[in-house]
Write a structure and sequence with these properties.
Order of helices and strands: HEHEHEEEHEHHHE
Strand order of the largest sheet: 2-5-1-6-7
Shape: globular
């Protein structure tokens, strides 16, 4: 929280990345609940943008193009929710550049995103702990996709080195 307060801006951008089950969403909610700057904060979870189980990179790019880049330029941003049941895009959501923003999800922290974020965070932990938490959270819906998703996370880490771009690193047991 002190990192956000110290920025001295009214509409900071906090980007939280990490592997599945690491605690990104929990951290984002804690930050939002304790938002130290007057006024509301917007929270966007990449889980709502990924276009299916093979869409980590595409969802992250959509978040950068439609949300982060627009916010950094002071423009109204937007993103389309992915309807996982229908496997199709759904309604559009706006992102107000006058408000603070928390953007969380695997794939979101790239060198380009780090340049426009005010605070960048990498959250990680042991694979077995992360897997247990993710499967407890999402149950059998995620179980058959765990390895498939992990390969996309590995590719994101190989290509973008998100931990190296993070100002804050958190290890969750």
């Amino acid at each position: 929280m002190r990192a956000v307060e110290a920025l001295g801006v009214t509409n900071p951008v906090v980007v939280i990345d990490g592997r599945s089950g690491a605690g990104k969403t929990t951290l984002a909610r804690l930050v939002a609940d304790r938002w130290p700057i007057g006024g509301p904060v917007q929270m966007v979870a990449l889980d709502s943008l990924y276009p299916g189980w093979d869409g980590l990179a595409e969802g992250a790019q959509r978040a950068y193009d439609g949300v982060l880049r627009a916010h950094a330029r002071g423009l109204m941003g937007s993103w389309r929710r992915w309807d996982w049941e229908r496997s199709a895009e759904a309604e559009t959501h706006g992102v107000d550049p006058a408000l603070g923003l928390i953007l969380e999800g695997c794939g979101v922290l790239t060198p380009a995103a780090a340049r426009v974020a005010d605070v960048s965070v990498w959250v990680d932990g042991p694979a077995e702990s992360r897997r247990r938490r993710a499967l407890e959270r999402d149950g059998d819906g995620f179980r058959p996709h765990w390895e498939r998703w992990a390969r996309q996370e590995d590719e994101h880490i190989r290509v973008h080195a998100p931990e190296a771009s993070a100002q804050i690193r958190i290890e969750v047991p």
